[in-house]
TrEMBL record:
This is tryptophan--tRNA ligase. It comes from Adineta steineri. Gene3D superfamilies: HUPs (3.40.50.620), Tyrosyl-Transfer RNA Synthetase (1.10.240.10). Its main location: mitochondrion. The lineage of its organism: Eukaryota, Metazoa, Spiralia, Gnathifera, Rotifera. NCBIfam families: trpS. Its EC number is 6.1.1.2. SUPFAM superfamilies: Nucleotidylyl transferase. GO terms for cellular component: mitochondrial matrix. One of its GO terms (molecular function) is tryptophan-tRNA ligase activity. InterPro entries: aa-tRNA-synth_Ic, Rossmann-like_a/b/a_fold, Trp-tRNA-ligase, Trp-tRNA_synthetase.
Length: 331
């Protein structure tokens, strides 16, 4: 009944780090290249749950877009656009908001984890999950490549679909299916008990995918391991070394067992393994970084790509929103 359509969303927080790439972006590119109908949303509205510096936000949107395109998101095959360029997101979110309650949103774990002071909860934090459901339903999304932490958001979206049908007796939305990704797999280089994050104040904790060679080498060589010089894979007892093996596996597509066996055969210690990993990362992103710098150097071209994506996304979104408004009695 509904054509297969995959929605991928990313908050524009400048250049993505290698955890974003291996956990999500690489998967999106594989989906695109396998022929999927892919929509990539730069979720800048979600990025301002709390206010951000305007110039930083503008720059971050362009850096994220350039990174995705340089890595392989093809604007001719997929739609890539800025969320804020379509008013349809917020209007549909308002309409969907009539179908749920604050209590329902408050049960979402990611919402609860962000609430520091219950006497002063930002309204944007409450509306965030509703807007997320609107993002999904606006394109009649059938598949979502998301991590397990997003399951409660998907459940809220499904709940809203059911409520819409209950009130209006119209089955216009597909129930989106989760396509599991390993979004939390790559850990911090300095604190491997934590996931890699842009919010970590320690820059050596991560590798941004467009970092230059010197920074990549420095961050890999300074990655926290342990006093055992051998290469072995154990998340519990050797989280630092295991994290490096995971990165190696993600970049090369080699199984962990093969990587460990080769390291043992060549008698590599952690220092030698780090040097090899750094070179593999550098080579993998070398051409992508060149393309990224070209795109950032020609911002008018980059903006034209986003504008074209907006037009294509607008066509789909307009049809859905008008259908919803008609059913609800607005036109």
């Amino acid at each position: 009944m509904f054509p297969r359509r995959v929605l991928c969303g990313i908050q524009p927080s400048s250049v993505p780090h290698i955890g974003n790439y291996l956990g999500a972006i690489k998967k999106w590119i594989d989906l695109q290249n396998s022929g999927d109908n892919l929509i990539v949303m730069l979720a800048d509205l979600h990025a301002v749950t709390i206010p951000r510096e305007p110039d930083v936000l503008r720059k971050s949107v362009l850096e994220t877009a350039a990174s995705l395109i340089a890595c392989g998101i093809d604007p001719k095959r997929s739609i890539i656009y800025r969320q804020s360029d379509l008013y349809h997101h917020t209007q549909l979110a308002w309409l969907l908001g009539t179908l749920t309650t604050v209590q329902k949103v408050a049960h979402i774990p990611t919402y609860k984890s962000k609430v520091k002071d219950e006497s002063s909860i930002p309204l944007g934090l409450i509306l965030y999950p509703v807007l997320q459901s609107a993002d999904i339903l606006l394109f009649k999304t059938t598949h979502l490549p998301i991590g397990e932490d997003q399951i409660p958001h998907l459940q809220l979206c499904t709940y809203m679909i059911e409520k819409f049908y209950h009130y209006y007796k119209q089955n216009i939305f597909p129930v989106p299916q989760m396509m599991a990704t390993e979004t939390n797999r790559i850990r911090s280089l300095r604190h491997p008990e934590q996931k890699m994050s842009k919010s970590d104040w320690e820059e050596r904790s991560r590798i941004d995918i467009m970092d230059d060679e010197k920074i990549i080498r420095e961050h890999v060589m300074k990655a926290l391991t342990d006093f055992n010089a051998k290469i072995s894979y154990d998340r519990q007892t050797r989280p630092g070394v295991t994290n490096l093996i995971d990165i190696y596996s993600g970049i090369t597509n080699q199984p962990v067992e093969t990587i460990v066996a080769e390291a043992e055969k060549e008698n590599l210690n952690t220092g030698a393994f780090k040097k090899r990993l750094a070179q593999i990362i550098i080579e993998h992103f070398r051409s992508k970084r060149i393309e990224y710098l070209k795109l950032m150097d020609d911002r008018s071209h980059l903006l034209s790509i986003l504008n074209e994506g907006r037009e294509r996304a607008h066509e789909i979104a307009d049809k859905t929103l008008n259908e919803v408004k008609h059913i609800m009695g607005f036109n």
